[in-house]
User: Fold this.
Amino acid sequence: MTDGQTTRVGFIGTGVMARHHLDGMLARDDTAVVAVCEPSAANYAKAVELFDRHGLGAPANEPDWQRFVTTFAGQLDAMFILTPHAFHFAQATACLEAGLDVLLEKPMVLSADEAEALIATRDRTGRLLVVAFQGSLSPHVREASRLLRSGELGTILNISATAWQNWSTNTIGTWRQEPALSGGGFMFDTGAHMLNTVADLAGEDFTEVAAWLENDDRPVDIRAAVIGRLASGALVTMNACGSAIPSCHSEIRVFTTEAILKTGIWGETLEIQRAGASALRKVRSVAETPVWEQFLNVRSGRIPNPSPPEVGLRMARLWDAIRESASRAGAVVHLPTSDPMRVQSVGRSETVGRAQAVGR
Assistant:
């Protein structure tokens, strides 16, 4: 548990992932779930079951998210948004504008333009925005990033990432295969974790991207292959198969001049083989911290933001380039580079002074 005042939070969305987080949050003495926004009667009923299980009364439910923000913003400190991807930008913007700190489910937004606009709103309102990417929030990825940024592993040469799942059959009939709501298929859903974690580990901009997206007679992409070049010249490959046999797994390898790092798109593990060693060895594990607890720790100023919107912007730029290249039969897309220190420093240092700013 964290110390300090109780944080009053609202939920926009109470689907499967929301209830996964909700179950742990309801057991905390530093968190009060005040109200929810859920248009689905079935999802709301399942959320109420969780409250019953924890000996709590059913939360108020306002199915219209705009009315929900207007009605409850004054009673809340933060909002947890877990809705179809297409709603993230408008909902997060409204919550920041209403003076709330926001924990936003992945992927952050649909495009780089939306990412830049959301960062501008975050900056103007002075509120906190954390993107709930397990990879960036994983202690394994944070340690891998530290090692890569420290220079002790030399320079990055290549990054190879693969993700696979029987996603195509698992998501039939759901919003995840409706382009207007999902913004993409397997590569922008499960694969979004790969895009984000690779971008996080790379720690620099992509300058060239070539990509192919295959729909396999579905309305969204099911398989993908991406080749990229980073600003430093390092090469990146990403392979996504959403029509695998029943399974859900991943692997990322980072090859540097002094070592090989191995992790997964969710930061499940971390192994390293340094120059002179004969095999990969596990890096000492650090206990995982629940997503909500990390949000509370960032909000109170205990830790810097592990998953700020600047990392989401880098991923959004990469996704824009992937879609453009795929629409042009794999033609190479050239991306402009930004300030190399921006994603490293902005956002992850945004907790300075926040302990005083958010204690309300």
About this structure: The first strand starts at residue 7 and ends at 12. The longest helix spans residues 309-327. The CA atoms of residues 126 and 312 lie 18 Å apart. Confidence is low (pLDDT under 50) at residues 340-360.
